[in-house]
Amino acid sequence: MFDCRICKATINEDEIFVLEERMYNTKQKFDYGTCSKCGCVQIAKIPDNLGSFYESDSYYSFNMGSSLIKNFIKWVFFRAILILPFRLRVKLIMRLRKNNTALLSVLHFVSENSKILDIGCGDGLLLKLLKAIGFKNLYGMDVFLSDDRCINENHLKISNKGIDAIDEVFDFIMLHHSFEHMTDPNTDLINISNKLNPSGQILIRVPIAPCHVHEVYGTEWVALDAPRHLYTYSVDSLTIMAKNANLEIEKIVYDSEGIQFWGSELYKKDIPLVAALGKNIYKYFTKEELADFESLSRELNEKKCGDSVAVYLRRK
Ligand SMILES: [Zn+2]
């Protein structure tokens, strides 16, 4: 048994189970437990060598770039739209990128001059897109990023330092599927809260339990992602942490996507997620199947039982 690192309740032996590493299918085994008090699913012992589970280049290639021609067309497009007034530009992008959940979760809540920090930004794909749209105060950090992937240019800075290394405050701090990777989320959320302008907003997008696909797929639910996901939060556990950080939850939007189904289906068939990156996904699923997964996800989100949420927080 071990103590829940969120609410301190005891997680007993009968609440502990084994999860295997499945993204690369190394099948390394890790003990996890579900807290019966706050509902948070968490790893029993945080591995000493966590960084080694992120070292592969393919980890970040989930955000794979497009071909040169596509990139050129994008470049021309983003140059062209700069003649539009800012609000109109944002409206146009929201319509054209209506399937980009991460982008939409941000654009609704920020303005042209917002100072935005993306924690766990990876290669900075979202920040680069925001820069192309015309945002000018963009910062990113990802402690697992190698030095050569860091960026220091006009309007956009990306570092591999931790939150403590930044001596500034932000209007909008966002964590897109990175909070579940943090070893000490209670302390981290307090530190994040301290970097927020008093009127600012925090956005945390994370997998959430309980949810429909966890019930259906059990330990093969793709979002459990052992050992990278140290925690799969419940709304209760997020509420406890928010309170400790002098924050309150303003809004929760269920934003799960088709990967909850196709990723879990792959695991059921013993296929690693990395085998289905980019266009390889069509080796395993038809376009119709993938469209069905997206439509099922939208239905689950409406019923508040999709497998991920966008949580918006403000200072109390
Ligand atoms: Zn707990």
If you had to describe this structure to a student in words, what would you say it looks like?
With 316 residues, the protein is α/β, with parallel strands linked by helices. The protein has a single domain, classed as Vaccinia Virus protein VP39 (Rossmann fold). Helix content is 31%, strand content 23%. The strands form three sheets. It has an eight-stranded mixed sheet, with helices on both faces. Strands 3-4-5-12 form a four-stranded antiparallel sheet, with no helix packed on it. Helix 9 crosses helix 10. It is globular. It starts with a strand and ends with a strand. The model has no long low-confidence stretch (mean pLDDT 91).
Please describe the topology of this protein.
Elements: E1 2-3, E2 10-11, E3 16-20, E4 29-34, E5 41-43, H1 57-60, H2 68-81, H3 86-96, H4 101-107, E6 115-119, H5 125-133, E7 137-141, E8 151-153, E9 156-159, E10 170-176, H6 185-194, E11 196-207, H7 212-217, E12 231-232, H8 235-244, E13 247-254, H9 259-268, H10 287-302, E14 308-315
Parallel strand pairs: 6-7, 6-10, 7-9, 10-11
Antiparallel strand pairs: 1-2, 3-4, 4-5, 5-12, 8-9, 11-14, 13-14
Bound molecules: zinc ion.
